[in-house]
Design a protein that fits this description.
Layout (H helix, E strand, L loop, with lengths): L1 H32 L2 H39 L3 E2 L4 E2 L9 H10 L19
Antiparallel strand pairs: 1-2
Amino acid sequence: MSAEITKLLDELSELQAQRDLLELDRKTAVNSVLTPEIRQQLADIDAEFADKGQTVTEKIAALEKEVKGRVTEFGESVKGEYLMAVYSLRTSWDTKRLEGYAAAHPEVLALRKQSVSVSLRKR
């Protein structure tokens, strides 16, 4: 089974590389038809919008921080017209110590819930 998953991961990696190469080829093709004047105009536009975008990004980050802080204090989820701030309280345990305790008190294992999640990362 591991070999099958490895094969799938390698296939996925190859497709991602193909996608990245296609994007590079597209950018190269676009750049090949741009005159130096148009490239400069595009650079000017990018610079203009980068500043505006940075300002908005900073305001978003500050407002997100404020909303999260207030919802944490409030202790409940809050719905806006288009967004929702979801409050969730997570509890964690010292797994090693709890498993040691469970060795002497196996009945506590009936309370344990385990979940699995898989994330894909580049190596």
